[in-house]
C-alpha cells in the first residue's frame, strides 16, 4: 500500500472540501482529484490540479471571447481537425499537474521529456524512505536476443528466484548502509551520539536505482500526449508504461474528445515511409510485391506487413 | 471602448456561472475572471483561467500530500526564501492564461519570450477589424538624443499634430487598401461580384504594425515574473509597460505572498557588479571614492550612484 | 538585388579566409558559407555557421569517444533507424546558424517555432530600409473558396493590376510617413532642424507588414527538420515555403544521410489514422470499401484516397 | 585514470587531424579540443565541438553582414553592456558540446537544467562499466547542523573509515549482483550457458547512484552561464562544482571577453533586496543601522553584512 495513514487523511481532507469557481471545470476529473492510483509495488499517480477542458482547446483555437460553441459535436469535429493537421498550440492551452511516486531508474527516463515542470523530493535535504521496486514475477524478463533494447521470455524457476533474492538482498543492504552512514536508527533518531553522520547529499549515493522517489510533474496537454505516445508504446519499458496507461485513463476523463482524436490520429495511427506508401499503392493497384523488389530491408518489410495485417513471407 | 456588445454579453454570461471545484481557488482572482482591463486605446488584458495559488508553490517545494501548512505567515517565509535563492521550479507550478488584445508591434516584442503558450488570431483565416493604435499626445515622444533605444521629450505643437495626422491617415488608408483587395464592403459582404478578392494571407500584409491583434497567452508564474521584471522596467517601451502594469495588479490578487517577494527581491532589488560591490565596501569603510579611482566607466559610475542615492559628481 | 556593394564586400572578405580546425567540417557546406541565396524580391538566406555533420549524429547516439564508424553506409543505416523510431536527441547534436532577410508577416509565422535562438534587427534602435515585398504576378492568388486558410486561382487582368498598384502605393506612402515622422531625409540626415523627430520605437508602427526585417536564426537539426516538415508542406503559405525550400537544399549539402532519411520518413511519408489503416487492411484483403461504409467523413475519405492514389468516387 | 588505452588512441587520432574552415575559430579552444579533463575519481569533461566566439556575440547583436568590429576592445565593451542589461539572446548564438562522465546522482542534478541537448549512454542497451565514485577523505563531510541542505565538518577517524568501507563494499556488491543477474562473467561473456540473463533494462536498477554514467551535453553560451552561475556557487554540491569549475576554465579559453563580463556582472556580483538597498543607502548617509531596526530577519541581516564586509553584530 503506497500511502501512510497520515497521507491518506490529508488526501481525504482535501477531497472533502469544495468551493465555487467560475473556471472551466470537469466533473469526471474532480471525482478522482487527489486520489492515488497505485502503480508498480509502491508507486502511484495523483492528479493535483488541472486547467481547461475540451472546450478550452476550441476556445483558444478560435481566440474567442466566450467559451466557444455549446455543441459538443462541433467541438469534437474541430478537435479532430486540429489533431489531424498537427495544430499543436490549442492543446497547449490545457494544463495538468500530477504527483507521482516512481523508481529512480524510471524517473531518469521520464525526465528526458523536458517540456514540463518538475519539483522532486530532495535527498540532499530529506531522508528517503526504505521503499524499493521489486518486479512481479511475470515481469521478470530475460534480455531479448533479437533486440538489444528489449525484453525476451519471462525468467523461470531457479534463475527467477535467484534474481529476486539478489534484488531484495542488495536493496536491503543498500539501505542499511545508507542509514548507518547517516547515523540514524529505524525511527529516524540519532543512532550513536558520538558520531556526526555523513551529509545527506553524500549518503544518498549508496541507494540503488530501484529506490522510489516522488515529484510534482506539470505539463500541458500537447506535451502530455507526446509523452504518452512514446511511453504508452509497446517499445517503451514496461515499468514506465504502467504510469502512462494510468495517465491515459485520466486523460479520458479530463478531455474525452481530445482523447478520442488522440487514439484515432496518434496511438492507433500508422506512419508509412515514402517507400512503404509506394508499396501500398502498388499492392492496391493489383501488383504482387515481395520484399526483394520492395526497396525495403527485411526488417522494415516485416514491420510494414505487420502494420498491414499481411503475411511477411521472409 | 475595446469590446462589442456581443463580446460584453459573452463575458457577462461566463461571469454569471459558478460550479463547485475541489481545486485550489483564489476568490480575489475569481472576482475579476474574464473581465477586460483596458490597455492603450483599443487593447485589453483578460484572465481566462488559472491554476494554483501561493500555497501551491509551498506544496510543490515540499512535494507534500496535502496543501502544505495552514499558516499564511509560514508559507510567506518559505516563498521569500525560494525567491531569494533563485529556486524557480516551485513557482513554475502555478499557471495563468490571459486573453490579450495589443498592437502588432508590441506583439512582436512580447513573443520573444518563448517560454509561454500562444494562440493568436489568424489573419490568414479571418479578417482583422479596423482598429489601430494612436498614442495619446502625452506619449508622443521624440527620439532620445542620449540613448539610441529610448524616448526623449514629448513632441509639441505643429510637429505633434502632424505626426498624429500622419499616423491616422496612413492607418485609415492601409485599411481601405486591405478591404479593397479583399473585395469586402464595410459590412464584410462581397463588394464587387465580378472580382475574386485577394487571398487573406496576402491582403493582410498591407496593414501597418499599429493594427491590433489578439491572442491567448498562457504562462507559468516563474516565467510571468521574468516577463514582468523586464517589461515593467523603466527601460521597456511604454506601450508594453502598460500591459505589464495591469498584469502586476492581477498577480497581486492571485498570489499576494509571491507578489510581495517579487517586489522585494526582483522589482525593487539592485544588482551590484563585482566592482560596484567593492566600491560600496570601500565607502562603508569610510573611504572617499571618486569615479576616476573607482574602476567604473562614467556611465556605470552614474548608474551606481543613482542606485545608492548619492550625487554622481561627474 | 538584396545586397549593397558594401555587404557583398564584407561577405567576399569572410569567404576569402580559411583557418585550420580540428572540428567536424563539411566541405560542401563550407563552399557556400556566408553566401546569400535570394528569396522573394528582396530577401535571402545565408549560412553563418554550423556545428556537426552526419557522423556527429552517430557519435552522439553511441556516446562514443572518437568520431563513430568510418563507413558512411553504416552511419546512414543508423541514421535511418533513429529517424524511423523518432529518436530525436542525436539530431539535436548538430546546429546551424542562418542570417535571413524576410517580410515581417512571414517573420511573424516563423517565430512561432520557439525552439530556436533569434536576434532580430531592432527598429527601436535603428532605422529600417525602404524595402517591401510585392508578390510576382503568378503568386497573386485569390482567396480559396473551399478552404478559408488557402489560396485559389491567380488573379488576372484589371483586378491583379489594381492589387499591385495598391500594394505599391500604400507601401511607398507608409515609408514617406515613417521618414517624415523621424524627420529624416533620403540620406538619413535630419530633414528639418526645427523639429525633434518621433522616437524610432514609435515611428516604426507606421510601416506595413510587407516591409523586410532580418535576423540571425540558430536551430538544432531536429528542430530544423520539424520546421521544414511544416513549412515546406503544400499547406504552408507560399512566401515561407520559398525559404524552407532553400533551407532543404542547404540541409542536403550539410547532412546528406540525414536529409535522405528525412525525405523517406517525414517529407514523403504518410500518416494513416486508425480508421484509415483499417480501411487499407480491408482493401488489401480484397474488400471493396466505399466512403459511406468507411467510417470516414467525405473530406477525410478524399484525403485518404489521394494518398493511396485511388479515385475518391465521392 | 578515466580513459582506456583504446579511448586515448581515438582521442589522439582526432586531435592529430586538422582541416581548413571558413568558420569562426578559436585557437585557444582548438588546443584542448577532445582532451579529457579529469573530474572526481573516474569522471572527465571533454569539449567535442563549438560554434562561435566573442565576435559572434557582437555580430548577432548587430545582425551584421560581416564579423563585426575588428577591435577587440570595442567588442568587449558591447559584451559588457549586453551582460549588464540582461540582453541574453546574443549569447545564445554561441554553442558548445561536451562529453562528460559523471556519477549518476550528479547527473540527476545536472539534467534539471532543461535548456540543453543530451544524449546519455543507455543502460537499457549496453552494460555499464564497474566504475563508482568514492569521495576523497577531505570531502567526506558530516551533515551540517545549521543548514539542512549542506555539509559540516569533515568526518574523521573511525567514522570516516567506516563510511568509506561501507561505500566501497556496497558498491562492489551491487556490481556483483548486476553482473550475476545479467549472467555475465568479468570479460563480458555469458557466465552460465543454462541461464538466460535478466534484461539489461531491469538489471541496471541494482546499481547504486554513485555509479558513473556519461553523456554528450550541448548548450548555448547563455544557458551555460546560467548553469555555471548556479553550479559554481558555494551553495552547490561539491561534486557538481568540480565540473563547473573545469567548464569555467574552458569558457575562459573560448570566449575571454564574455567570461570577463560574466565574472564582473554575475559570478562576483551581489543582488541586494529592496530592503537591503535601503539599508545601504541609510548607512552611506551616515546612519548607524542595526538588525532590529533594519527590517531584515537575523539571517538576511547576516547575509547582507557578509556581502558588505561588515561585522554582523547579532
UniProtKB/TrEMBL annotation, chains A, B, C, D:
The keyword Flavoprotein applies. Binds 4 FAD per tetramer. Each FAD binding site is formed by three monomers. Its cofactor is FAD. Coiled coil: none annotated. Its EC number is 2.1.1.148. It holds the Pfam family Thy1. One of its GO terms (biological process) is methylation. One of its GO terms (molecular function) is thymidylate synthase (FAD) activity. Pathway: Pyrimidine metabolism; dTTP biosynthesis. InterPro entries: Thymidylate_synthase_ThyX, Thymidylate_synthase_ThyX_sf. The keyword NADP applies. Homotetramer. This is Flavin-dependent thymidylate synthase. It comes from Skermanella stibiiresistens SB22.
Amino acid at each position: 500500500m503506497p500511502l501512510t495513514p497520515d497521507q491518506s487523511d490529508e488526501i481525504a481532507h482535501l477531497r472533502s472540501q469544495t468551493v465555487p469557481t467560475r473556471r472551466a471545470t470537469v466533473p469526471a476529473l474532480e471525482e478522482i482529484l487527489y486520489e492515488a492510483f497505485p502503480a508498480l509495488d509502491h508507486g502511484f499517480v495523483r492528479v493535483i490540479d488541472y486547467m481547461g477542458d475540451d472546450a478550452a482547446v476550441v476556445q483558444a483555437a478560435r481566440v474567442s471571447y466566450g467559451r466557444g460553441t455549446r455543441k459538443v459535436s462541433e467541438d469534437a469535429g474541430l478537435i479532430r481537425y486540429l489533431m489531424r493537421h498537427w495544430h499543436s498550440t490549442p492543446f497547449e492551452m490545457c494544463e495538468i499537474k500530477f504527483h507521482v511516486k516512481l523508481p529512480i531508474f524510471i524517473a531518469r527516463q521520464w525526465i528526458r521529456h523536458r517540456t514540463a515542470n518538475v519539483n522532486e523530493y530532495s535527498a540532499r535535504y530529506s531522508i528517503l524512505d526504505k521503499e524499493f521496486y521489486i518486479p512481479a514475477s511475470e515481469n521478470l524478463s530475460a534480455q531479448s536476443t533479437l533486440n538489444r533494447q528489449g525484453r525476451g521470455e519471462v525468467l523461470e524457476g531457479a534463475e527467477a528466484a535467484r534474481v529476486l533474492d539478489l534484488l531484495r538482498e542488495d536493496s536491503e543492504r543498500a539501505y542499511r548502509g545508507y542509514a548507518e552512514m547517516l547515523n540514524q536508527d529505524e525511527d529516524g533518531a540519532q543512532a550513536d551520539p558520538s558520531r556526526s553522520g555523513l551529509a545527506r547529499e553524500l549518503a544518498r549515493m549508496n541507494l540503488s536505482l530501484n529506490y522510489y522517489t516522488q515529484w510534482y510533474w506539470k505539463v500541458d496537454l500537447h506535451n502530455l500526449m507526446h509523452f504518452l505516445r512514446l511511453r504508452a508504446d509497446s517499445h517503451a519499458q514496461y515499468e514506465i508504461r504502467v504510469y502512462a496507461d494510468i495517465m491515459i485513463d485520466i486523460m479520458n476523463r479530463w478531455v474525452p474528445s481530445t482523447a478520442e482524436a488522440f487514439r484515432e490520429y496518434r496511438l492507433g495511427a500508422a506512419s508509412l515511409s515514402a517507400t512503404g506508401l509506394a508499396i501500398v499503392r502498388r499492392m492496391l493497384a493489383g501488383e504482387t510485391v515481395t520484399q526483394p523488389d520492395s526497396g525495403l530491408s527485411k526488417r522494415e518489410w516485416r514491420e510494414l506487413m505487420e502494420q498491414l495485417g499481411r503475411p511477411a513471407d521472409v
